[in-house]
Amino acid sequence: MHDRRTENIHRFSHAAMGSIFEIRICHADGRYAGSASVEAFRLLDQLEHDLSRFIANSDISRISNLHVGESTQVSYETYTCLRLCAEMHRLSRGVFDVTIGELYDCWLNPDKTLKSPTPQQVAAAKRRVGWSHLSLDEERYRVRMAGGPVRLDLGGFGKGYALDKMAELLADWEITTFVLNGGQSSMLIGDAPGDIGWPITISDPFDDYRLLRELYVANIAIGGSGLVKGRHIIDPRTAQPLENERAAWALAPTAATADGLSTTFMLLSLAEIADLCAQNPSCSAIIRQKNVEPLAERLVYTGSVKLYE
Question: pTM for the whole thing?
């Protein structure tokens, strides 16, 4: 997923969260755009330090290492991110769950290949998954391990949340015409640089990444899941790796929402996806099933999502 070259765009990139983040800014002053991007990437690094489970002293790691009954203080950004994760859990009808870390560790090797756990190991890991095991203290920004204990993994949400916060920082610099890209699977698009939106292409991972659809969009986020090979998505309802061979893209007002929904769309049926979008008209879905003709793909969107086609 990427946007074609647009004239007069200043481009900056930075490695974080295991991906390459890119900022594209439309601004008359390239030096000013560069200074803003430096600050945005500095914020990104701080968010990674708070949210990554791969950093030993991050907020997320400290939460995951709590014993039942213990609590820890977290940053405002971490608390806000967790609260949004809880909201996404409700929106997804329990399918999107960042407390799924124990199941990831049970099923996946570090390179995301599958292990062969016993049914007993899977059952034990599943018992340590669920939002009921966490208690959030909004007044003191503390997180308490009420049960489980659980292990957190924000991989399906953290990048999008970071893009949203970076966009807020750019707005402070009065920069609103931009595209933010987090590892090719998370995008946040600002104001259009001209009369139509930014040109964004979506490629088919099941057909040598040929062009599947081109959209012209502005002021929207796009998240993609299932864009790489491997059964690395675990269904918290069944505690089993995803068997559906599908690619899913979500369009939503924020990058965090788009990221969470794209994972959700990998797990729900097409009817459930259509129903979720109907009940949340600011959200849309593009679904590509393997071994199904591209014309059979489902594009669901409403007038609240502005597409220039």
Answer: 0.90
Helix (H) or strand (E) holding 222: strand 220-225
Measured distance CA(189)–CA(197) in Å, rounded? 9
Q: Which two tokens stand for residue 220?
A: 């929207």
CA atoms within 13 A on the CB side of 89: 17
How far does Cα 163 stand from its chain's mean position? 10
Domains of the chain: 2-44+158-300 (3.10.520.10), 59-145 (1.10.3980.10)
User: Which tokens hold the place of 16?
Assistant: 């974080």
- pLDDT tens for the chain, 309 residues long, are 544 444 588 999 999 999 999 999 999 999 999 999 999 999 999 999 999 999 999 999 999 999 999 999 999 999 999 999 999 999 999 999 999 999 999 999 988 889 999 999 999 999 999 999 999 999 999 999 999 999 999 987 999 999 999 999 999 999 999 999 998 789 999 999 888 889 888 888 888 888 888 888 999 999 999 877 655 789 999 999 987 688 899 999 999 999 999 999 999 988 898 889 989 989 999 888 877 654 444 444 433 333 333
- Closest residue by Cα to residue 64 from 97, 99, 88, 89: 99
Residue with tokens 């959209």: 215
